[in-house]
Design a protein that fits this description.
Blueprint lengths: L2 H25 L1 H7 L4 H4 L1 H14 L11 H21 L3 H15 L3 H11 L5 H27 L7 H14 L9 H4 L5 H19 L1 H13 L3 H29 L1 H18 L6 H27 L4 H29 L1 H27 L1
Helix pairs in contact: 1-7, 1-8, 1-9, 4-6, 4-16, 5-6, 5-7, 5-9, 7-16, 8-13, 8-15, 11-15, 11-16, 11-17, 12-13, 13-14, 13-15, 14-15, 14-17, 15-16, 16-17
Keywords: Membrane, Transmembrane, Transmembrane helix, Transport
Membrane topology: Multi-pass membrane protein
Protein name: MFS transporter
């Protein structure tokens, strides 16, 4: 295979490694607690230590591509990821481990959005939806594979999981991604279309809160209603990542064929309906199917919003800002939606479904306004 083709392929491998590294933490929190003599609640801080710096840095990380070549930024970021993974694997203390987590978090903030910028630059406009769909499919695979790999590693030593992160990061550094020049100055000075950009931000925030973040609520629901052990709950959650991996590419192709707004509407309606149904179902297998539909919907919405944002005036510069709100939304779910669930299970799933519908209506309103 030619080096150029390999580098294009590495764009999608890069979409895998970020979620793969992040999701592994949730799978081994009890093991982290034992290793560093912490309570489970204290060990769960590792997830927060990853998400908060990651999402905050993403608010502005894309702007760097107007000063430096994006492929060079990505290579440096994966070299930093490599260092962070080595620190986490060898960390002898809690503080050093958290330091390694933060290093990986900050570096991932310069890979996820910038890889998407490179994909836009090297892909024909008529095929951008399909390319983004493949990228998000690899993200879904990373989300799905992380608990499995981390679980097997924990049989010997959970920290050995980072060998997988080290291997992928090293491949990203050695092979690299397609080279492009820093974005032109006239792109940097392009006036940002704020109304659609704000709608995109609110939509991604709703997806983070109402579907992706609801994995934690679903886990609690499965344990409280069905008394399911962790291993079985994990399979239900994994159904979402697997389904999104298989369907994200097709959704991206549908964006190219039918348009972003139509696909977003279909994905939102399906995702909202699936989430709202969960507390009314008495069979875990059916709940797993609903979760799969909801997660596919979430990936579809994210694909369409990214597609639209990158094609909006000023969208390249603010793409990372839009994406960051997915993770802020995820962080808000335990604070805003979990208390509702504890008061009333049906409302705990109905409210996020309503938030998704509200975001869809905003998108349709903005679409009509733009077309007028």
């Amino acid at each position: 295979m030619q080096l150029k083709q390999m580098r294009v392929g590495m764009l999608y491998v890069g979409g895998f490694v970020g979620p793969f590294a992040a999701q592994s933490l949730a799978a081994v929190i009890p093991d982290i607690a034992v290793t560093f003599d912490k309570t489970v609640q204290e060990a769960a801080f590792a997830v927060t230590a990853y998400m908060i710096p990651f999402a905050t840095t993403m608010l502005f990380s894309t702007a760097i591509v107007h000063r430096f070549s994006p492929h060079k930024v990505v290579r440096i970021a994966y070299a930093t990821t490599l260092i962070g993974a080595i620190i986490c694997m060898l960390a002898p203390s809690w503080k050093i481990f958290i330091g390694g987590i933060v290093v990986m978090s900050l570096s991932n903030a310069f890979t996820l959005p910038i890889l998407q910028v490179i994909i836009r630059e090297v892909t024909h406009p008529d095929k951008l939806g399909g390319a983004l769909g493949r990228y998000f499919a690899m993200q879904s695979l990373g989300n799905c594979a992380a608990p499995l790999v981390a679980g097997f590693a924990a049989i010997v030593n959970w920290q050995l999981f980072y060998l997988a992160v080290i291997a992928v990061a090293l491949a990203m550094v050695v092979i690299g991604v397609p080279g492009i020049q820093p974005l032109a100055k006239n792109t940097t000075s392009e006036k940002v279309a704020w109304p659609p950009m704000i709608v995109h931000i609110l939509t991604i925030l709703a997806v983070g809160m109402s579907i992706i973040g609801m994995g934690a609520v679903l886990t609690i629901h499965l344990e409280s209603v069905f008394s399911m052990p962790a291993s079985q709950r994990g399979f239900v959650i994994m159904a979402g990542g697997l389904a999104a991996f298989f369907f994200a590419g097709r959704i991206g192709g549908a964006v190219d064929k039918y348009g972003a707004l139509r696909v977003l509407t279909a994905c939102t309606l399906a995702g909202a309906a699936a989430i709202a149904l969960v507390p009314h179902l008495g069979w875990p297998v059916v709940i797993a199917l609903c979760w799969a539909v909801a997660f596919v919907g979430a990936q579809g919405i994210q694909t369409t919003v990214t597609y639209s944002a990158l094609r909006t005036p000023g969208g390249t510069k603010f793409n990372s800002t839009v994406l960051a709100f997915r993770f802020f939304g995820l962080a808000l779910t335990p604070v805003l939606l979990l208390p509702i669930y504890f008061r009333n299970a049906a409302a705990g799933f109905a409210v996020p479904a309503a938030l998704l519908i509200a975001a869809m209506l905003l998108q349709q309103w903005q679409g009509r306004k733009t077309a007028a």
